[in-house]
Amino acid sequence: MKEHKYILEPYKGMNTRYRCPSCQQRDKTFSLYIDTETGEHIHPTVGRCNRESNCGHHYTPKQYFQDNSISFDTPQPKAYKPRPVTPLPKPVSFIPVEVFKASLKAHETNHFVQFLINLFGVEVASQLVSRYFIATSKHWNGATVFWQIDTQGKVRTGKIMLYSPTTGKRVKNLELPVYWVHKALKQPEFELRQCLFGEHLLIDKTKPVAIVESEKTAVIASGYLPQFIWVAVGSLTNLNAEKCSILKGRTVTLFPDLNGFDKWSSKAKELSHLAQFTVSDLLERKATEAERKQGFDLADYLIKYDYKAFALPEPEATEPPPAVQPLVEVKPFEQPEPVYYFNKPEQPKPENWEQDITELENYFTGIALPTQPVKLNRCSTITDCSQFIESHFATVKANNGKRTFLPYLNRLQELKQVLTTNLN
Known about the structure:
By secondary structure, the protein is α+β, with helices and mostly antiparallel strands. It has a four-stranded antiparallel sheet with strand order 1-2-3-4. It has a four-stranded antiparallel sheet with strand order 5-6-7-8. Helix 12 (354-365) packs antiparallel against helix 13 (385-398). It has 14 helices and 14 strands. Residues 110-258 form the DUF6371 domain. This is Toprim domain-containing protein.
């Protein structure tokens, strides 16, 4: 098979595409012809625009040689130059471990941590800070660092942001509302390759994965719905194949902000070769018109509720969970229990619910139970009171004093309060 002497330059990145001399689009839409023997371009006008329907410029080598009285078969009198060798990609850079460790303090001054304490209490806030290695920066007073740690325990970079300690909203009236640790370190040779925020948690293969846009949302959602591994891509446009390659073979649910449902639905199809993606329409169904205008995200929706209302009882484990392989360098999973960055709460004492159970039984047997559905709270409606009471009493009696099953007792007490209010 005879090879052509002149061909369009093969695509090797945007550096091999140029501005079309005809349509002058800003985007690089123009492919130049090259001499396959020398690797040289024939002329800056000899090529083809890929905007075929809008431009259609195609100036061939033959036309150029004819227009300039050059023999088409005669090589141009140019000195031979070897084709440039594509340089190997530079190795990924990482944040020094000592910089990372030094940031894991001064949480009492961290505005976002203060918001988590107000939302969840000290114990749960400490668990979230430990789980995601939420750090503190001096870049702004009260600023937060969200570290990007990969599954090898390597710290890729950290995003620095400032939040309100009361609302949890990001402070945007700054010259640069988002800053980066690798820039603050002023390392000109730093080769950045970002990963998912929370990626270090993916060494746990037992849970499905949930993806949101912002780091703040991932942390908060993890407190409400811990049955998922919550990770963040950083922005609407950062959901891509490079970041999601670590999810190969996983079950993943996407929770886009209100302005991103259509875009992420399209992305889910694009990335379907990597994982089993589902796109949640929760916000699309629940949001009011005002919330749509504000561009609500999942965290904005969740914080309207008490996180305890989302808690589900878990059966007590009969065997200890399998050991998790420790990570390199940082080794976040070597902690045998959550690290409390604040005053550690007192350990709960063994309980006995006999008196509570007796009082509740006396109350429910002494009233006429409603036959209509009863709204227990904003999240729950009881359709059959008699069956609900019977099943809950069976559970609390069989697990008396076990805190895992305390929500069952709490729901019975909550029902008593609702019925008492209705009767009065």
